[in-house]
# Entry
Amino acid sequence: MGTGIFITGTDTAVGKTLVACGLAALFKESGLSVGIMKPAETGCIEKDGELFPEDAVRLKNVAGSDDPLENICPYRLVDPLAPSVAAERAGVKIDIARIRRIYDEIASRNDITIVEGAGGLLVPLLPHYTYADLAKLLKLPVIIVAANRLGAINHLSLTLESAAARGLRVAGYVWNNLERQPSLAAETNPDALRFLTAVPCMGEIPYVESFERHALAKLFAERLGGALDGLLKRR
Ligand SMILES: Nc1ncnc2c1ncn2[C@@H]1O[C@H](COP(=O)(O)OP(=O)(O)OP(=O)(O)O)[C@@H](O)[C@H]1O
Ligand SMILES: [Mg+2]
# Structure
């Protein structure tokens, strides 16, 4: 059984998929086999009569995973809503035991398996079951992707507090810069956070120009390399 990590974020559209792809690229180019899972993807658009999970496909390509998309992303939903709500509206029952079985199977065949959530940590998969519960069930350390912008000090602090309250192990957080030109908030957030938490900052990802595997692997090695040694050594 390889290591697994769970990628969550301070919000939706903060760069979880980008960071998951960067990590997958780096691990892959380091010679590791990389498993990928996006247990539920919402806001899927129909293509050739099937719901297309964009995040899962990007992850699969970067990781070079041969696993069928049905396993990488077992729940694909149309409405761009929290999975529990989108599933209810589509008449789909999300089966957590099934997600766990698939995760265990993928993780058993790979050195490292990266699981991407949807939205933030407390987004529900079932009406009373959140991604925090799933990370706990799968015994995954969590990496929090924080959009580096005004408001992030609060969003990241809340996410860290919530993870701690639920007994999750947080490997660290990653600042992600979604704007080419960093704002004053983006320049000052990292220092401000250091006073508020003992959880390590794993690094900062700048605005990315290329999403190609090799470019991502190089960037992530430079920016997060040191912070990942611990994760990889635990294998
Ligand atoms: N560092 C970055 N540089 C440039 N563009 C970025 C960066 N991070 C994210 N983006 C872009 O911002 C958008 C949102 O990023 P991403 O899809 O990774 O977010 P997410 O947190 O995975 O969203 P979701 O909640 O939908 O899964 C994407 O178009 C992505 O390409
Ligand atoms: Mg995503």
